[in-house]
Every structure is written in structure tokens, then in C-alpha cells.
Amino acid sequence: QVQLVESGGGLVQAGGSLRLSCAASGSGFSINVMAWYRQAPGEQRELVAASTKSGSTHYADSVKGRFTISRDNAKNTVYLQMNSLKPEDTAVYYCFVAGVGIPGSSLWGQGTQVTVSS
After folding, report:
1. Phi/psi zone of residue 54: left (φ > 0), alpha (ψ -120 to 50 degrees), beta?
2. What 3-state class would DSSP assign to 89?
């Protein structure tokens, strides 16, 4: 069984930085896509950044130049470095993975709160 454990959320002032981590544990799986989504109160969940095993990345326009997604394939871990944070970045951030050997082919993390004060 595959499990995701997220960490790194918290409260930060505008202009500050946070780094989120998401580690997948278990056996018998191979992850292709690792991504971060976020959901603010009253809003739909949206893609923030995604990374494929081959190395390609995608960012939402709202975070380009401020956020960086990276991954350690050997550790099945994905990171989201968030710089120059803005109050509108406040949301619950969810890790998402997709690949072979994962029940349902994809899995969500439990979410971690990021709050940016002005």
C-alpha cells in the first residue's frame, strides 16, 4: 500500500518562503507524475506545479518565477520551494502522485495548510 506524508506548511509573512515536502512510502510502485495542488476556502482545487519522472515541469501562471518543484526519485519525494509568498497563496496544499502500482493509479496527500499574512 502506498502512503503519502506531507510536511512543511505553516504561517509566514508576505515575501517569505516555505518548503513543502511529500514522501511516498510503500513498495511495488513506480511514480511518474508528482504534483502539488492547492485549495483556498470557497475555491476549486487548482494545480500549482507538476513534475514528471523524465524531468519535465509545469507551473501555474500565478506561481511562475516564485515556486520551484523538485523531486528525489530515489526517495520518492517531491518538494515545493515557495518564495516571495503572497497572501493569495494562502490555501491547503495537496500532494498528488500518479504511476504504476498505485491503487487507482493516483493518490492524494492529506494536505498541509499554508497561510501567508500581509
Report:
1. alpha
2. helix
Report how far apart, in Å, the C-alpha atoms of 83 and of each of 29, 57, 63 are.
Answer: 32, 17, 9
Q: Amino acid letter at 51? A: S
Contacts of 118 (CB under 8 A, 6+ apart): 14, 87
Q: pLDDT tens across 61-101, in order?
A: 999 999 999 999 999 999 999 999 999 999 999 999 999 99
∠ CA 9-13-19, nearest 5°, is 30
Question: 22-54: per-residue pLDDT in tens?
Answer: 999 999 999 999 999 999 999 999 999 999 999
